[in-house]
Amino acid sequence: MLRNLFLVQMHWQLLALLSLVCQTLILTLAARKRSESWRQDCRSCLECSKENGCLRCSERLFLFLNRDGMSHHGSCVHSCPSGHFGLRAKDLNRCMKCKAPECERCFSKDFCTKCKGGYLLFKGKCFKNCPEGTFLQSTECVEGCVLSLFGLWGEWSPCQHSGLSCGVRWGQQSRTREVSRNTPEETESLCPPQTESRKCRMKKKSPKDKKKNVRIEGRRKAQKMLKLFWNETVTEPPWQM
To answer: What's the pLDDT score for residue 240?
Structure first.
């Protein structure tokens, strides 16, 4: 009986010892892993700590602090992650957080350049819907009209000056282009047709003037021929008559 109790006690002691060895081994491996991870994280750092990671980065990199409650872990990155922008300074380049939580990328703290899914960008801010007076263009709200909404230019109008088409040296002509047929109706009201004009050279004389000049020229030629014929008749010798 005593022998059996002794064997059971030895068995439990052996199990306890094995459990302690396993726990020690697990803790040792975890510590080694943390040590290796810490060394990996510190490769891009100029200054590093075991508890907080990178403290200082090279001139080209940005220091990004990944906060977890009250603690934070620093790492040196080439470009800042989503929701942050890179701020360069004399002493240290940092990744700073965008002010608006719906902003995915920002140029500065208050100016967003890309919004998260479900939001639309307009003048550096993110909106659920486009503000009044703007319309949707891709993932942004656009104020006024953009060239991509318009079709081709029409033909140039005839060259005129104050309603005249000739008799003046210079005139004006214009052309128009309408909004594309595929444009939504709400956008058409915001985009009136585009018109442009240019200076043009006008015809000096009208067709009527040309006809008049032809008649005058014909008359002159007839008078000249008659004059030459008359002079020749007058100057002939009397004996030839």
So the answer is: 47
Encoded tokens for 25: 């081994």
Instruction: Decide: 46 and 58 in contact? Cβ < 8 Å.
Output: yes
Arch. (CATH architecture) of 36-97: Ribbon (2.10)
The residues near 73 (Cβ < 8 Å, ≥ 6 apart) are 41, 52, 53, 65, 66
Q: How many CB atoms lie within 10 A of CB 22?
A: 10
Report which of 86, 28, 36, 90 is spatially closest to residue 62, judged by C-alpha positions: 86
Sheet containing 125-127: order of strands: 125-127, 120-122, 140-143, 134-137
Backbone φ and ψ of 213, nearest 5°: -65, -35
| Residues 97 and 107 sit within 8 Å (Cβ to Cβ) | no
Q: Where are the domains of the chain?
A: 36-97, 144-205
Q: Work out the burial of residue 124: count CB atoms within 10 Å of its CB; fewer than 13 is exposed, 13-18 middle, 19 or more buried.
A: middle
CB-CB contact of 124 with 85 (8 Å): no
Find out whether 84 and 64 touch, Cβ atoms under 8 Å: yes
pLDDT tens per residue, range 184-240: 555 555 566 778 888 898 876 655 555 555 566 667 776 777 676 666 555 555 544
